[in-house]
Protein backbone atom coordinates (compact mmCIF):
# COMPACT_ATOMS: atom_id res chain seq x y z
CA UNK A 1 0.00 0.00 0.00
CA UNK A 2 1.39 3.44 -0.88
CA UNK A 3 1.45 6.05 1.86
CA UNK A 4 -1.25 8.13 0.18
CA UNK A 5 -3.65 5.18 0.41
CA UNK A 6 -2.91 4.59 4.07
CA UNK A 7 -5.48 5.27 6.83
CA UNK A 8 -3.48 8.15 8.35
CA UNK A 9 -3.14 9.89 4.97
CA UNK A 10 -6.83 9.39 4.20
CA UNK A 11 -7.78 10.86 7.57
CA UNK A 12 -5.68 13.92 6.80
CA UNK A 13 -7.28 14.26 3.35
CA UNK A 14 -10.75 14.26 4.89
CA UNK A 15 -9.66 16.79 7.50
CA UNK A 16 -8.07 19.00 4.84
CA UNK A 17 -11.40 19.32 3.05
CA UNK A 18 -12.70 21.19 6.10
CA UNK A 19 -9.59 23.21 6.92
CA UNK A 20 -9.09 24.35 3.32
CA UNK A 21 -12.27 26.41 3.64
CA UNK A 22 -10.94 28.31 6.65
CA UNK A 23 -8.98 31.52 6.47
CA UNK A 24 -6.21 32.19 8.98
CA UNK A 25 -8.18 35.27 10.02
CA UNK A 26 -10.94 33.00 11.28
CA UNK A 27 -8.50 30.67 12.99
CA UNK A 28 -6.93 33.56 14.92
CA UNK A 29 -10.35 35.02 15.74
CA UNK A 30 -11.61 31.68 17.08
CA UNK A 31 -8.62 30.97 19.26
CA UNK A 32 -6.70 33.68 21.05
CA UNK A 33 -4.15 31.15 22.27
CA UNK A 34 -2.83 30.03 18.91
CA UNK A 35 0.66 31.30 19.65
CA UNK A 36 0.84 29.43 22.97
CA UNK A 37 -0.52 26.28 21.38
CA UNK A 38 1.60 26.22 18.29
CA UNK A 39 4.96 27.66 19.24
CA UNK A 40 7.72 25.40 20.55
CA UNK A 41 11.23 25.88 21.91
CA UNK A 42 14.32 23.70 22.01
CA UNK A 43 18.09 23.94 21.52
CA UNK A 44 18.32 27.76 21.10
CA UNK A 45 15.43 27.82 18.63
CA UNK A 46 11.80 28.87 18.77
CA UNK A 47 9.43 27.82 16.01
CA UNK A 48 6.08 29.57 15.80
CA UNK A 49 3.66 27.56 13.67
CA UNK A 50 0.58 29.56 14.67
CA UNK A 51 0.48 31.26 11.26
CA UNK A 52 0.26 27.87 9.58
CA UNK A 53 -3.17 26.73 8.43
CA UNK A 54 -3.43 24.08 11.15
CA UNK A 55 -5.60 23.19 14.11
CA UNK A 56 -4.85 20.93 17.06
CA UNK A 57 -6.58 18.13 15.15
CA UNK A 58 -4.28 18.72 12.17
CA UNK A 59 -1.23 18.29 14.37
CA UNK A 60 -2.61 15.14 15.95
CA UNK A 61 -3.39 13.62 12.54
CA UNK A 62 0.08 14.54 11.27
CA UNK A 63 1.62 12.84 14.26
CA UNK A 64 -0.52 9.78 13.57
CA UNK A 65 0.90 9.76 10.04
CA UNK A 66 4.45 10.03 11.38
CA UNK A 67 3.83 7.13 13.72
CA UNK A 68 2.19 5.05 11.03
CA UNK A 69 5.37 5.57 8.95
CA UNK A 70 7.41 4.35 11.95
CA UNK A 71 9.22 7.66 12.28
CA UNK A 72 10.70 6.99 15.76
CA UNK A 73 12.32 3.78 14.45
CA UNK A 74 13.59 5.57 11.34
CA UNK A 75 15.15 8.31 13.48
CA UNK A 76 16.92 5.66 15.52
CA UNK A 77 18.09 3.98 12.30
CA UNK A 78 19.66 7.26 11.17
CA UNK A 79 21.56 7.88 14.40
CA UNK A 80 22.68 4.32 14.94
CA UNK A 81 24.35 4.03 11.54
CA UNK A 82 21.93 1.74 9.72
CA UNK A 83 22.29 1.82 5.96
CA UNK A 84 19.54 4.37 5.39
CA UNK A 85 21.01 5.31 1.98
CA UNK A 86 19.74 2.21 0.20
CA UNK A 87 20.77 3.02 -3.38
CA UNK A 88 24.37 3.51 -2.27
CA UNK A 89 24.21 0.88 0.46
CA UNK A 90 25.61 3.02 3.27
CA UNK A 91 24.63 4.93 6.40
CA UNK A 92 24.24 8.72 6.58
CA UNK A 93 26.11 9.67 9.71
CA UNK A 94 26.37 13.45 9.68
CA UNK A 95 25.04 13.40 13.25
CA UNK A 96 28.14 11.42 14.30
CA UNK A 97 30.32 14.32 13.11
CA UNK A 98 29.04 16.48 15.93
CA UNK A 99 28.86 13.83 18.62
CA UNK A 100 31.21 14.55 21.56
CA UNK A 101 34.44 12.54 21.60
CA UNK A 102 33.49 10.67 24.78
CA UNK A 103 30.46 9.05 23.10
CA UNK A 104 31.67 6.07 21.05
CA UNK A 105 29.67 5.03 18.02
CA UNK A 106 30.18 1.52 16.69
CA UNK A 107 29.38 1.05 13.02
CA UNK A 108 30.01 -2.51 11.82
CA UNK A 109 32.28 -3.07 14.82
CA UNK A 110 34.39 0.08 14.28
CA UNK A 111 34.27 3.07 16.63
CA UNK A 112 33.92 5.83 14.07
CA UNK A 113 34.01 8.46 16.80
CA UNK A 114 37.78 7.98 17.14
CA UNK A 115 38.36 8.47 13.41
CA UNK A 116 36.12 11.52 13.34
CA UNK A 117 37.95 13.22 16.17
CA UNK A 118 41.39 12.30 14.82
CA UNK A 119 40.46 13.92 11.52
CA UNK A 120 39.08 17.03 13.27
CA UNK A 121 42.27 17.32 15.32
CA UNK A 122 44.43 17.19 12.19
CA UNK A 123 42.29 19.98 10.74
CA UNK A 124 42.67 22.01 13.92
CA UNK A 125 46.45 21.64 13.82
CA UNK A 126 46.54 22.93 10.24
CA UNK A 127 44.20 25.78 11.17
CA UNK A 128 46.47 26.75 14.09
CA UNK A 129 49.53 26.67 11.85
CA UNK A 130 47.86 28.99 9.37
CA UNK A 131 46.59 31.32 12.09
CA UNK A 132 49.94 31.44 13.85
CA UNK A 133 51.80 32.23 10.65
CA UNK A 134 53.69 28.92 10.85
CA UNK A 135 52.33 27.77 7.51
CA UNK A 136 54.32 29.67 4.93
CA UNK A 137 54.04 30.30 1.21
CA UNK A 138 56.86 29.47 -1.22
CA UNK A 139 58.88 32.58 -0.32
CA UNK A 140 58.31 32.32 3.44
CA UNK A 141 55.29 34.68 3.55
CA UNK A 142 52.57 33.89 6.11
CA UNK A 143 49.16 33.15 4.63
CA UNK A 144 46.90 36.18 4.08
CA UNK A 145 44.32 34.73 1.67
CA UNK A 146 42.66 31.34 1.79
CA UNK A 147 40.61 30.25 -1.21
CA UNK A 148 38.13 27.41 -0.84
CA UNK A 149 37.64 25.73 -4.21
CA UNK A 150 34.58 23.49 -4.19
CA UNK A 151 30.99 23.31 -5.37
CA UNK A 152 27.62 22.16 -3.98
CA UNK A 153 28.09 20.68 -0.53
CA UNK A 154 31.81 21.42 -0.66
CA UNK A 155 31.08 25.12 -1.03
CA UNK A 156 27.62 26.17 0.11
CA UNK A 157 27.83 25.14 3.79
CA UNK A 158 31.27 26.65 4.46
CA UNK A 159 30.38 29.80 2.48
CA UNK A 160 27.06 30.26 4.29
CA UNK A 161 28.64 29.74 7.70
CA UNK A 162 31.68 31.94 7.12
CA UNK A 163 29.40 34.81 6.12
CA UNK A 164 26.95 34.16 8.97
CA UNK A 165 29.55 33.95 11.72
CA UNK A 166 32.41 36.14 10.47
CA UNK A 167 31.95 38.52 13.39
CA UNK A 168 33.09 35.72 15.71
CA UNK A 169 36.56 35.69 14.18
CA UNK A 170 39.01 36.14 17.08
CA UNK A 171 41.24 39.24 16.85
CA UNK A 172 44.44 37.39 15.94
CA UNK A 173 42.96 35.82 12.81
CA UNK A 174 41.31 38.89 11.40
CA UNK A 175 43.97 39.55 8.80
CA UNK A 176 43.31 36.32 6.88
CA UNK A 177 40.69 36.70 4.17
CA UNK A 178 38.63 33.66 3.21
CA UNK A 179 37.35 33.45 -0.37
CA UNK A 180 35.07 30.98 -2.12
CA UNK A 181 35.41 29.94 -5.71
CA UNK A 182 32.89 27.60 -7.29
CA UNK A 183 31.85 28.70 -10.79
CA UNK A 184 32.78 26.16 -13.45
CA UNK A 185 33.55 28.85 -16.03
CA UNK A 186 36.36 30.22 -13.88
CA UNK A 187 34.84 33.69 -13.40
CA UNK A 188 35.02 33.62 -9.60
CA UNK A 189 38.65 32.60 -9.68
CA UNK A 190 39.74 34.93 -12.48
CA UNK A 191 38.30 37.91 -10.60
CA UNK A 192 40.14 36.94 -7.45
CA UNK A 193 43.52 36.16 -8.98
CA UNK A 194 43.90 39.73 -10.18
CA UNK A 195 44.20 41.11 -6.66
CA UNK A 196 45.75 38.47 -4.42
CA UNK A 197 49.41 37.78 -3.87
CA UNK A 198 50.41 34.23 -4.89
CA UNK A 199 53.09 33.79 -2.23
CA UNK A 200 50.66 34.39 0.64
CA UNK A 201 47.67 32.50 -0.79
CA UNK A 202 46.58 29.02 0.23
CA UNK A 203 44.05 27.02 -1.80
CA UNK A 204 41.80 24.45 -0.16
CA UNK A 205 40.53 22.01 -2.77
CA UNK A 206 37.33 20.65 -1.23
CA UNK A 207 35.75 17.73 -2.97
CA UNK A 208 34.29 14.58 -1.50
CA UNK A 209 34.82 12.68 -4.76
CA UNK A 210 37.87 14.66 -5.94
CA UNK A 211 36.50 14.16 -9.41
CA UNK A 212 34.04 17.03 -9.79
CA UNK A 213 35.03 18.75 -13.00
CA UNK A 214 34.01 22.23 -11.79
CA UNK A 215 36.38 21.99 -8.83
CA UNK A 216 39.25 20.35 -10.70
CA UNK A 217 39.05 22.94 -13.49
CA UNK A 218 39.38 25.75 -10.94
CA UNK A 219 42.11 23.92 -9.00
CA UNK A 220 44.13 23.38 -12.21
CA UNK A 221 43.85 27.07 -13.09
CA UNK A 222 44.92 28.09 -9.58
CA UNK A 223 47.92 25.76 -9.70
CA UNK A 224 49.00 26.99 -13.15
CA UNK A 225 48.75 30.57 -11.88
CA UNK A 226 51.01 29.77 -8.94
CA UNK A 227 53.53 27.88 -11.05
CA UNK A 228 53.58 30.66 -13.68
CA UNK A 229 53.87 33.54 -11.23
CA UNK A 230 56.46 31.86 -8.99
CA UNK A 231 58.47 30.03 -11.65
CA UNK A 232 58.76 27.15 -9.16
CA UNK A 233 58.12 23.43 -9.71
CA UNK A 234 54.65 22.06 -9.27
CA UNK A 235 55.63 19.80 -6.41
CA UNK A 236 56.89 22.66 -4.28
CA UNK A 237 53.81 24.72 -5.06
CA UNK A 238 51.54 21.83 -4.05
CA UNK A 239 53.33 21.47 -0.72
CA UNK A 240 53.05 25.12 0.27
CA UNK A 241 49.83 26.20 -1.38
CA UNK A 242 47.34 23.35 -1.57
CA UNK A 243 45.31 21.46 0.99
CA UNK A 244 42.95 18.74 -0.24
CA UNK A 245 39.81 17.77 1.67
CA UNK A 246 38.23 14.61 0.41
CA UNK A 247 36.75 11.17 0.93
CA UNK A 248 38.85 9.93 -2.02
CA UNK A 249 42.49 10.23 -0.84
CA UNK A 250 43.96 8.34 -3.82
CA UNK A 251 42.43 10.79 -6.25
CA UNK A 252 43.70 13.76 -4.25
CA UNK A 253 47.17 12.18 -4.23
CA UNK A 254 46.99 11.55 -7.98
CA UNK A 255 46.18 15.20 -8.50
CA UNK A 256 49.28 16.09 -6.51
CA UNK A 257 48.20 16.86 -2.95
CA UNK A 258 50.83 15.42 -0.57
CA UNK A 259 49.45 13.16 2.18
CA UNK A 260 50.39 15.61 4.95
CA UNK A 261 48.24 18.27 3.25
CA UNK A 262 45.18 16.04 3.02
CA UNK A 263 42.19 15.93 5.34
CA UNK A 264 39.83 13.02 5.05
CA UNK A 265 36.21 12.30 5.64
CA UNK A 266 34.03 9.35 4.72
CA UNK A 267 31.63 8.17 2.05
CA UNK A 268 28.91 8.02 4.71
CA UNK A 269 28.96 11.83 4.94
CA UNK A 270 26.67 13.17 2.22
CA UNK A 271 28.17 16.16 0.36
CA UNK A 272 25.32 18.45 1.40
CA UNK A 273 25.64 17.24 5.01
CA UNK A 274 29.41 17.72 5.18
CA UNK A 275 30.03 21.18 6.64
CA UNK A 276 30.40 19.54 10.08
CA UNK A 277 33.35 17.47 8.85
CA UNK A 278 36.79 18.71 7.79
CA UNK A 279 35.00 20.22 4.76
CA UNK A 280 34.31 22.94 7.35
CA UNK A 281 38.00 23.91 7.48
CA UNK A 282 37.26 27.30 5.89
CA UNK A 283 34.77 27.86 8.74
CA UNK A 284 37.38 27.02 11.38
CA UNK A 285 39.82 29.35 9.63
CA UNK A 286 37.21 32.11 9.70
CA UNK A 287 35.89 31.76 13.26
CA UNK A 288 38.59 29.74 15.03
CA UNK A 289 38.67 26.13 16.18
CA UNK A 290 36.89 26.87 19.44
CA UNK A 291 33.91 28.46 17.74
CA UNK A 292 33.83 25.64 15.18
CA UNK A 293 33.48 23.19 18.09
CA UNK A 294 30.68 25.33 19.53
CA UNK A 295 28.86 25.13 16.23
CA UNK A 296 29.15 21.33 16.39
CA UNK A 297 27.90 21.43 19.99
CA UNK A 298 24.86 23.49 18.96
CA UNK A 299 24.04 21.02 16.21
CA UNK A 300 24.48 18.17 18.69
CA UNK A 301 21.99 19.83 21.03
CA UNK A 302 19.45 19.80 18.20
CA UNK A 303 20.35 16.16 17.43
CA UNK A 304 19.69 15.19 21.04
CA UNK A 305 16.36 17.00 20.98
CA UNK A 306 15.39 15.38 17.65
CA UNK A 307 16.33 11.93 18.88
CA UNK A 308 14.59 12.13 22.22
CA UNK A 309 11.66 14.60 22.18
CA UNK A 310 8.17 13.23 21.58
CA UNK A 311 6.84 14.06 18.09
CA UNK A 312 4.33 16.56 19.47
CA UNK A 313 7.14 18.73 20.85
CA UNK A 314 9.87 17.89 18.39
CA UNK A 315 10.87 20.94 16.33
CA UNK A 316 12.25 19.22 13.22
CA UNK A 317 9.40 16.69 13.24
CA UNK A 318 6.75 19.43 13.50
CA UNK A 319 8.42 21.52 10.81
CA UNK A 320 8.54 18.54 8.50
CA UNK A 321 5.01 17.38 9.14
CA UNK A 322 3.55 20.86 8.69
CA UNK A 323 5.48 21.04 5.41
CA UNK A 324 3.83 17.76 4.39
CA UNK A 325 0.46 19.21 5.33
CA UNK A 326 1.04 22.23 3.09
CA UNK A 327 2.42 20.24 0.17
CA UNK A 328 0.28 17.13 0.13
CA UNK A 329 -2.97 18.34 1.64
CA UNK A 330 -3.18 22.09 0.88
CA UNK A 331 -1.47 21.79 -2.54
CA UNK A 332 1.23 24.36 -1.88
CA UNK A 333 4.35 23.70 -3.93
CA UNK A 334 6.47 26.79 -3.42
CA UNK A 335 8.52 27.51 -0.32
CA UNK A 336 10.26 30.83 0.35
CA UNK A 337 13.09 31.09 2.91
CA UNK A 338 13.36 34.62 4.27
CA UNK A 339 16.09 35.47 6.78
CA UNK A 340 15.73 38.90 8.43
CA UNK A 341 19.44 39.23 9.12
CA UNK A 342 21.92 40.07 6.39
CA UNK A 343 24.47 37.70 7.91
CA UNK A 344 22.21 34.82 6.88
CA UNK A 345 22.18 35.79 3.20
CA UNK A 346 23.51 32.45 2.00
CA UNK A 347 21.05 30.33 4.01
CA UNK A 348 18.49 30.16 1.16
CA UNK A 349 21.08 28.85 -1.35
CA UNK A 350 22.28 26.29 1.19
CA UNK A 351 18.72 25.10 1.86
CA UNK A 352 18.01 24.92 -1.87
CA UNK A 353 20.62 22.18 -2.13
CA UNK A 354 19.82 20.56 1.20
CA UNK A 355 16.10 20.26 0.51
CA UNK A 356 15.84 19.92 -3.26
CA UNK A 357 18.85 17.66 -3.85
CA UNK A 358 17.73 15.48 -0.94
CA UNK A 359 14.01 15.23 -1.51
CA UNK A 360 13.56 16.18 -5.17
CA UNK A 361 12.70 12.55 -5.90
CA UNK A 362 9.86 10.74 -7.64
CA UNK A 363 10.49 7.08 -6.88
CA UNK A 364 10.21 5.28 -3.56
CA UNK A 365 13.03 3.51 -1.76
CA UNK A 366 11.86 0.38 -3.56
CA UNK A 367 12.03 2.05 -6.95
CA UNK A 368 8.28 2.48 -7.43
CA UNK A 369 6.99 5.61 -9.12
CA UNK A 370 5.25 7.99 -6.72
CA UNK A 371 1.82 9.48 -7.30
CA UNK A 372 2.05 12.22 -4.68
CA UNK A 373 4.13 15.39 -4.48
CA UNK A 374 7.50 15.50 -2.73
CA UNK A 375 9.90 18.43 -2.27
CA UNK A 376 8.46 21.81 -3.25
CA UNK A 377 10.36 24.47 -5.18
CA UNK A 378 12.36 26.30 -2.58
CA UNK A 379 14.03 29.64 -2.99
CA UNK A 380 14.73 32.70 -0.93
CA UNK A 381 16.53 35.92 -0.21
CA UNK A 382 17.30 38.18 2.71
CA UNK A 383 13.73 39.15 3.72
CA UNK A 384 13.95 42.96 3.61
CA UNK A 385 15.56 42.81 0.15
CA UNK A 386 12.96 40.31 -1.04
CA UNK A 387 10.27 42.77 0.14
CA UNK A 388 11.46 44.98 -2.72
CA UNK A 389 11.62 42.11 -5.18
CA UNK A 390 9.18 39.20 -5.00
CA UNK A 391 6.89 39.91 -2.02
CA UNK A 392 4.43 41.43 -4.49
CA UNK A 393 3.78 37.86 -5.68
CA UNK A 394 3.48 36.57 -2.11
CA UNK A 395 0.86 39.18 -1.28
CA UNK A 396 -1.12 39.52 -4.48
CA UNK A 397 -0.02 36.81 -6.92
CA UNK A 398 -2.01 33.72 -7.79
CA UNK A 399 0.36 31.16 -6.21
CA UNK A 400 0.10 29.83 -2.70
CA UNK A 401 3.52 29.98 -1.07
CA UNK A 402 4.64 28.79 2.35
CA UNK A 403 7.33 30.91 3.97
CA UNK A 404 9.97 30.50 6.66
CA UNK A 405 10.84 33.76 8.40
CA UNK A 406 14.17 33.41 10.21
CA UNK A 407 15.61 35.94 12.67
CA UNK A 408 17.62 36.20 15.88
CA UNK A 409 15.73 37.90 18.72
CA UNK A 410 18.73 39.97 19.80
CA UNK A 411 21.75 41.45 18.14
CA UNK A 412 24.29 42.31 20.77
CA UNK A 413 26.64 45.18 20.42
CA UNK A 414 29.85 43.46 19.58
CA UNK A 415 33.21 44.20 18.07
CA UNK A 416 32.38 47.78 17.36
CA UNK A 417 29.09 47.14 15.60
CA UNK A 418 25.99 48.71 17.05
CA UNK A 419 23.15 47.58 14.89
CA UNK A 420 20.48 47.12 17.53
CA UNK A 421 18.27 49.87 16.18
CA UNK A 422 18.51 48.56 12.64
CA UNK A 423 17.97 45.02 13.88
CA UNK A 424 14.71 46.10 15.51
CA UNK A 425 13.67 47.73 12.25
CA UNK A 426 14.27 44.41 10.49
CA UNK A 427 12.32 42.51 13.16
CA UNK A 428 9.37 44.89 12.87
CA UNK A 429 9.34 44.24 9.13
CA UNK A 430 9.62 40.50 9.65
CA UNK A 431 6.60 40.41 11.94
CA UNK A 432 4.65 42.86 9.78
CA UNK A 433 5.12 40.71 6.71
CA UNK A 434 4.19 37.41 8.33
CA UNK A 435 1.13 39.09 9.91
CA UNK A 436 0.01 40.52 6.59
CA UNK A 437 0.63 37.29 4.70
CA UNK A 438 -1.51 35.43 7.23
CA UNK A 439 -4.30 37.92 7.82
CA UNK A 440 -4.31 39.97 4.64
CA UNK A 441 -5.91 43.39 4.73
CA UNK A 442 -8.25 42.33 7.54
CA UNK A 443 -5.59 44.03 9.69
CA UNK A 444 -7.14 47.31 8.48
CA UNK A 445 -10.56 48.60 9.60
CA UNK A 446 -11.68 49.79 6.19
CA UNK A 447 -10.16 47.21 3.84
CA UNK A 448 -13.52 46.55 2.13
CA UNK A 449 -13.61 50.01 0.66
CA UNK A 450 -10.26 49.63 -1.15
CA UNK A 451 -10.18 48.93 -4.90
CA UNK A 452 -9.33 45.36 -5.96
CA UNK A 453 -5.72 46.13 -6.89
CA UNK A 454 -5.07 47.28 -3.34
CA UNK A 455 -6.51 44.23 -1.58
CA UNK A 456 -4.39 41.64 0.26
CA UNK A 457 -5.99 38.22 0.42
CA UNK A 458 -3.78 36.74 3.18
CA UNK A 459 -4.01 33.07 4.16
CA UNK A 460 -0.41 32.45 3.05
CA UNK A 461 1.01 30.17 5.73
CA UNK A 462 4.37 30.80 7.37
CA UNK A 463 6.59 29.59 10.17
CA UNK A 464 8.65 32.07 12.14
CA UNK A 465 11.92 30.64 13.38
CA UNK A 466 13.71 32.69 15.99
CA UNK A 467 16.71 32.00 18.13
CA UNK A 468 18.16 33.84 21.10
CA UNK A 469 21.01 35.47 19.22
CA UNK A 470 23.17 34.48 16.29
CA UNK A 471 26.13 32.49 17.63
CA UNK A 472 28.10 29.46 16.46
CA UNK A 473 25.93 27.26 18.70
CA UNK A 474 22.54 28.67 17.68
CA UNK A 475 23.55 28.59 14.02
CA UNK A 476 24.61 24.93 14.32
CA UNK A 477 21.26 24.11 15.92
CA UNK A 478 19.32 25.95 13.21
CA UNK A 479 21.03 24.12 10.35
CA UNK A 480 20.73 20.74 12.08
CA UNK A 481 17.02 21.41 12.53
CA UNK A 482 16.60 21.82 8.76
CA UNK A 483 18.65 18.66 8.08
CA UNK A 484 16.35 16.65 10.32
CA UNK A 485 13.25 18.20 8.83
CA UNK A 486 14.41 16.95 5.43
CA UNK A 487 14.98 13.46 6.81
CA UNK A 488 11.53 13.30 8.42
CA UNK A 489 9.85 14.31 5.17
CA UNK A 490 11.78 11.63 3.30
CA UNK A 491 10.52 9.03 5.78
CA UNK A 492 6.92 10.07 5.21
CA UNK A 493 7.34 10.14 1.42
CA UNK A 494 9.29 6.84 1.50
CA UNK A 495 12.15 8.24 -0.57
CA UNK A 496 15.94 8.24 -0.21
CA UNK A 497 17.15 11.73 0.78
CA UNK A 498 20.82 10.76 0.64
CA UNK A 499 21.46 10.05 -3.04
CA UNK A 500 21.32 12.40 -6.06
CA UNK A 501 21.22 10.31 -9.21
CA UNK A 502 19.42 13.12 -10.97
CA UNK A 503 22.64 15.12 -11.30
CA UNK A 504 24.70 12.39 -12.96
CA UNK A 505 23.40 12.20 -16.52
CA UNK A 506 24.00 15.89 -17.15
CA UNK A 507 27.69 15.38 -16.32
CA UNK A 508 27.97 12.53 -18.85
CA UNK A 509 26.18 14.39 -21.61
CA UNK A 510 28.37 17.49 -21.02
CA UNK A 511 31.51 15.37 -21.33
CA UNK A 512 30.35 14.02 -24.65
CA UNK A 513 29.49 17.52 -25.93
CA UNK A 514 32.77 19.08 -24.82
CA UNK A 515 34.69 17.56 -27.76
CA UNK A 516 32.43 19.40 -30.13
CA UNK A 517 33.61 22.70 -28.67
CA UNK A 518 37.26 21.87 -28.23
CA UNK A 519 37.83 19.87 -31.40
CA UNK A 520 35.14 21.53 -33.51
CA UNK A 521 33.74 18.09 -34.34
CA UNK A 522 30.07 17.31 -34.67
CA UNK A 523 27.97 14.32 -33.78
CA UNK A 524 24.26 13.72 -33.99
CA UNK A 525 22.31 15.05 -31.00
CA UNK A 526 19.10 17.00 -31.60
CA UNK A 527 18.36 19.99 -33.80
CA UNK A 528 18.45 22.48 -30.93
CA UNK A 529 21.78 21.30 -29.50
CA UNK A 530 23.30 21.05 -32.97
CA UNK A 531 22.04 24.51 -33.92
CA UNK A 532 23.47 26.09 -30.75
CA UNK A 533 26.85 24.40 -31.19
CA UNK A 534 26.92 25.59 -34.80
CA UNK A 535 26.18 29.13 -33.61
CA UNK A 536 29.12 29.05 -31.15
CA UNK A 537 31.45 27.64 -33.81
CA UNK A 538 30.37 30.34 -36.28
CA UNK A 539 31.00 33.10 -33.73
CA UNK A 540 34.51 31.78 -33.28
CA UNK A 541 35.23 31.88 -36.98
CA UNK A 542 33.76 35.34 -37.54
O1 LIG B 1 26.81 17.00 -8.53
C1 LIG B 1 26.20 17.07 -7.28
C2 LIG B 1 27.21 16.87 -6.20
O2 LIG B 1 27.62 15.54 -6.17
C3 LIG B 1 26.68 17.29 -4.84
O3 LIG B 1 25.90 16.33 -4.24
C4 LIG B 1 27.94 17.59 -4.13
O4 LIG B 1 27.72 18.34 -2.98
C5 LIG B 1 28.70 18.34 -5.20
O5 LIG B 1 28.36 17.67 -6.40
C6 LIG B 1 30.18 18.39 -5.04
O6 LIG B 1 30.74 17.11 -5.02
P1 LIG B 1 32.23 16.86 -4.54
O7 LIG B 1 32.34 17.32 -3.14
O8 LIG B 1 32.44 15.40 -4.70
O9 LIG B 1 33.13 17.66 -5.43
UniProtKB/TrEMBL annotation:
Belongs to the GPI family. HAMAP family: G6P_isomerase (MF_00473). The keyword Cytoplasm applies. It catalyses: alpha-D-glucose 6-phosphate = beta-D-fructose 6-phosphate. Its EC number is 5.3.1.9. It is found in: Cytoplasm. Keywords: Cytoplasm, Gluconeogenesis, Glycolysis, Isomerase. The active site is at 357 (proton donor), 388, 507. PROSITE patterns: P_GLUCOSE_ISOMERASE_2, P_GLUCOSE_ISOMERASE_3. GO terms for molecular function: glucose-6-phosphate isomerase activity. It comes from Amphritea atlantica. It is an enzyme of class 5 (isomerase). Gene3D superfamilies: 1.10.1390.10, Glucose-6-phosphate isomerase like protein, domain 1. This is Glucose-6-phosphate isomerase. Catalyzes the reversible isomerization of glucose-6-phosphate to fructose-6-phosphate. Pfam families: PGI. Its main location: cytoplasm.
Amino acid sequence: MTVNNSPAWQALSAHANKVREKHLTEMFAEDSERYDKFSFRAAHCLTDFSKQRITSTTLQLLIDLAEQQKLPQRIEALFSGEKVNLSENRPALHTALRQPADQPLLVEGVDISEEIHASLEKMETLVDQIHNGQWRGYDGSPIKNVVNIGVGGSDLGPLMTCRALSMFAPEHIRDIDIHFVSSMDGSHLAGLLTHIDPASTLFIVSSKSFSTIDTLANANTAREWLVDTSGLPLELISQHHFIGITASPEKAADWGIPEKNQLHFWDWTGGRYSMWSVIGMAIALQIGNKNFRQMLAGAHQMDTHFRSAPPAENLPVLMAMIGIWNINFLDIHAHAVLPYDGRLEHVPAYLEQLEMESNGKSVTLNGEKLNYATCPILWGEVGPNAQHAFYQLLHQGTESVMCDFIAPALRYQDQGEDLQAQHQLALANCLAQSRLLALGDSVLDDADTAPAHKRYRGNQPSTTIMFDTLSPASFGALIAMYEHKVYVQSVIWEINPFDQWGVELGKQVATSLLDQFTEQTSSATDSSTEGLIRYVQQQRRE
